[in-house]
Amino acid sequence: MNRRNKYVIRKIMALMLSGVIVFSSGCGVNNSGKAAGDKPLESADKADTAGETSNDSPNNIIADDENNGSSNNNEESNNAGNNPLEDDSENDNSTNGDASKENIPTDSALNDESSHELTDEDLKATLDYTYQSHPMTLKNGDTDYASANYYTVKLDKNVINEFDKLQKTLDAFGAEGEKETNEFFSSSAPEIKEMFESEWNIPYEVALNYYPIRADGKVFSFVVEDYAFLGGAHGYTYFKDYNFDPVTGKEIAFSDVVKNTETLPEIIANEIEKQNEDIAKDFRGYPDDRNNFISSFPDRLKENAKALSWALDYDGVVFCFEDYAMGSYALGWQMVKVKFKDYPEIFTDTYDNYDESEMPDINEIGKELKETDTVTVDATPFLTDITDNKGKFPGGLDDDGKGEDEEYGEDWWYHAVVKNPGWTSFTADGIDTEAGKPSYELSEISSNTTDWLNEETWAKEKGIPLPERFPYSDETYSYSVVNDADNGELSLTVFNNELGSLEGNYYFDEFLNPPDQGDGLFADVTTPYIYYAKIKDNILYVSLGHRTYASANPHKSYMVAIDMVSGETLWKSDDQVCSSYNFVILGDSIYCGYGFTQEPDYIYVLNIKNGKVQQKINVKSAPYYFIVQEETMYVLTYNTEYLYKIVD
Fold it and tell me: Which of 189, 367, 394, 622: CA 20 to 30 A from 254?
């Protein structure tokens, strides 16, 4: 099996673990440890201890009024052995909280026997239930390789007969979680073994937290926090939502809850600012963060809001957002409640069933049982011999894990130091170095020059969003950076939204310091930063540079291409070809631009296979943005709007 096929299989296994997740299905707390309602929320690694019930539901976090509720430390929820549900053999059917909804039975797959006729009073009655965490550990001898958990959910016996279809759905949720956790262990064990033998002694961790939201005859909803650490600088947190009709056991559609999404993004942003001063302060200081958040909603709302994490509460809808959704990683994941009564124009009245005085307490309804004993899984059956016939590990590692270089074969990407092959252009062995012709020609339609082109104003007038800057997402990947070269860190993190897995942490340490020139260093030793990144066909394209004179430091504003399977740097372009805020890929060509003060300003077209310049087009000032609109391309510079026809 070749390395690329192994890569694909590994990613499929990650998908099976994480379920179907696309960009921006998460919810969370800010850096101060407070959620959107400014009430404290403990982090996942401080989750409830065994034998205690959780009061950390989003209802407690974000309610406007103090809700003292009551402790869940009763005999039934604290002592799993005394719970009458313990005798039910179905209690072992369970699932990872992040199980794919595609594995939840559809109505046709549920019990054919129809539920009892339910009155309006029945639909408003609470559905008491319990939920329970099942921790598991993957071990190789005495070494912990990975930890994970999944949840089971069980309706109380006083309601289970009335809502048998819901229980079957919850059983499927449970069974799939256990299956996915075992598959995560089996698929990860060889990779973790190699990391330990390479002296990266860091076990994997997947930590789920269950939050009950609503449980009555009308709605059964909960969200599951999923924190995954698979190596690298830090983990990643997102949320998966579950909203079920208790009578049918089927999912409730977003369109059944929200009737008008046109104003929803702005409403959510406004509510976040009202409910969370830290985010409001960041949005005021960094308006691009707010703009990027708003501009993410068209993708979030596609396919009936498939990429928007939401949960039906008794008095509104809780919206949840993953790491990086607000801006930097330090801001954390966030949640916000939008109440029915405050925005009746966007909500249907189907699920607005309570007066404030009669609002149920979810912590009295959904109770957490003491977690089960940790199940230990032996890694031995899953391990393979990763040494070759010469006793070497991939990437030149000796048997003792100390190798002649720092490459780690196909699993290099957990902590990848991107190789800088030299400060001039470079093409790896075996790659054709012919520049060739552009895949598409740009034929100028018009140009409009002013004293200064305000891109934000231009975007509003045209109704065309500007390309996002870090952090941003495309249909498959999320990209974020640490541009802190002065303190020694220049890194790019890529997360696969479709698979719900870390794609890689890319460290550009070898690009920080330019070489000596003549008798000393460059006159200007400005450190670089990462402008933009894009993935196509498992190749990562990154532009790096800094804004200074080429005469002071010529090694700037270039692109590199990195094979995401092997970690190899495939090519490095000429200097001074890409300082634009973004670039676009059309066919087998990359369209970008460079210019600085009195230096020449050009659009550059590069061969995607080797980085060679295929064409350059003179423009009046340095290109900033490249925006493709069907068969045309806008190029925005400091003072000019260019419009080109894309000609095949």
Answer: 367
Cα 445 to Cα 447: distance, rounded to the nearest angstrom: 7
What confidence tier does 416 reach under pLDDT thresholds 50, 70, 90? confident
pLDDT tens-digit series, residues 79-120? 333 333 333 333 343 333 344 444 554 443 444 444 456 677
426, 624 contact by CB (below 8 A): no
> How far from 379 is each of 15, 96, 181, CA to CA, in Å?
21, 20, 13
Closest CA to 591 of 546, 539, 534, 545: 534
Q: What is the mean pLDDT of residues 344-350?
A: 95
Question: Looking at residue 354, what DSSP letter applies?
Answer: -
Output the six-digit token pair for 139.
């071990």
Q: Annotate 26-76 with DSSP letters as a single string.
A: -----TTSB-TTS-B---GGGPPPTT------HHHHH-SS--------SHH
Distance in angstroms (rounded) separating the CA atoms of residues 467 and 92: 48
Residues in the chain: 648
Q: Which residues contact 24 (CB under 8 A, 6 or more apart)?
A: 296, 299, 300, 307, 308, 309, 321, 322, 325, 473, 497
- Residue 471: asked if its preceding bond is cis (omega within 30°), the reply is yes
Predicted pLDDT at 606: 98
Beta strands 204-215 and 143-155: pairing type? parallel
The tokens for 396 are 């030149």
Residues 353-394: pLDDT tens digits? 898 888 999 999 999 999 999 999 999 999 864 433 333 323
For residue 534, what pLDDT is reported?
Answer: 97
Residue 20 DSSP symbol:
S
pLDDT by residue (tens digit) across 306-343?
899 999 999 999 999 998 888 877 788 999 999 999 99
Strand partners, 210: 224
Q: Please, which contacts does 59-66 make with residues 24 or more away whose CB atoms are closer than 8 Å?
A: 59/213, 59/313, 59/314, 59/361, 59/362, 59/363, 60/363, 61/35, 61/36, 61/37, 61/335, 62/35, 62/36, 62/37, 62/275, 62/318, 62/335, 62/336, 62/337, 63/37, 63/39, 63/337, 64/37, 65/356
